[in-house]
Amino acid sequence: MESSDAMLARFLALHPKTIDLSLGRIERLLARIGEPQRRLPPVIHVAGTNGKGSTIAFMRAVLEAAGLVVHVYTSPHLVRFHERIRLGRPGGGQFVAEERLVAALERCEQANGGAPITVFEITTAAAMLLFAETPADVLLLEVGLGGRLDATNVVEAPQACVVTPVSLDHADYLGDSVTRIAAEKAGIFKRGAPAVIAPQEPETTAVLEAAAERVGARSILVGGQDFHVHEERGRLVYQDEQGLLDLPLPRLPGRHQLVNAGTALAALRAAGYGRLPADAFEAGMTRAEWPARMQRLRQGGLVDLSPAGAELWLDGGHNPDGGRALAAAFAELEERYPAPLVMVVGMLGTKDADGFLKPFVGLAQELVAVPIPSQLAARPAEEVADIARSVGLKARTSDSVEAALVGLREMKWERPPRILVTGSLYLAGDVLAANGTIPQ
């Protein structure tokens, strides 16, 4: 049997561009394979710049704790492509098995007949096949890029649509302002499907609300007039017209996860899952997992290379809003458990490195810039270091994450450092693989 990796590599030749936002190609392919998008379980569709994955993780944890069978589609993957497609089953879903993935890809390749199509489009079609042919109660569907012209936007009647915080990212494809990007993401809104809108800048909220009104979707504003979420006495308190939930704080660290958890709760209630057992909502807060988002690595090959007693953290953040949320989370951690913060950073050339790094000025003691060998679009380490110095961070370079950790281990520390590897989801995937931490 041919491997899925070999097939995915071959699919790269089907289109000259990696990204070419359009619905025509995937609609053509879906028609040839029997319109699986019309046979999906009830869908909650999620777009946004930051927090999509965490919001989905909270929803999945709640739904599975209630005994529901949940499919999940997310991107990009960190270590293996199979992470993008989680097939639900009683007791908890699993990433798609190699044999089933290959079979679905083969069916799509044969039906496509060599016609132009991007890798994301043909693999999304394969995912639709798998989701349609595997019974489940819910499908949590994450947008790949944007929304309006994203390949996932073939779903005609979702139970609810969600837009998490929007910020400036992928400007070459979505527009050069946050409001333009928001308009693209609002393209997933559908008539009759509640539009759950996470906290945004006022002008962004206005764009999203107007888009929802145009298509006949009821807007539900997180933290606005529709519901509130906040921390009170070490608990998460959520309140809307359906009542109040007094829940444990999210397992995922960082104050920004309160917003993501609240958005998840609002989406579930809007989609008709508000009457799930109270213990399911409680379990969802404490069981949710989302790798490479403020993830503490406690054992593995890279942990062994780190200075004795050091903390090793991983986060795939890479845009200015992500940098602000991450810096705030580590500032809070510093207040509670002081330790010198050292950043190990690799970034793509398409990302706003200046905006991502600025929030760490005065917080990080040092930054070690590293390359991302697997990515041709990665910034050279010296360029990342130069940008870090330009915003006021002490910076140097190293040949790799491994070399950076060894170098830190050879230094003398009054207190074991807190090490944060960040700047790219691609770097995060490389780190998880090198550490032997494979997402489950």
Instruction: Give the C-level CATH assignment of the largest domain.
Output: Alpha Beta
Tell me the number of structural domains. Answer: 2
Query: Any guess at the CATH architecture of the largest domain?
Result: 3-Layer(aba) Sandwich
Can you count the beta strands?
A: 17
Say what the CATH topology of the largest domain is: UDP-N-acetylmuramoyl-L-alanine:D-glutamate ligase
Tell me, rounded to a whole number, the average pLDDT: 94
Low-confidence parts: none
Number of H- or I-type helical stretches: 16
The backbone outline, from C-alpha atoms, is: globular
Name some characteristics of this structure.
440 residues, alpha/beta, UDP-N-acetylmuramoyl-L-alanine:D-glutamate ligase, Protein-Tyrosine Phosphatase, Chain A, 2 domains, eight-stranded mixed β-sheet, globular
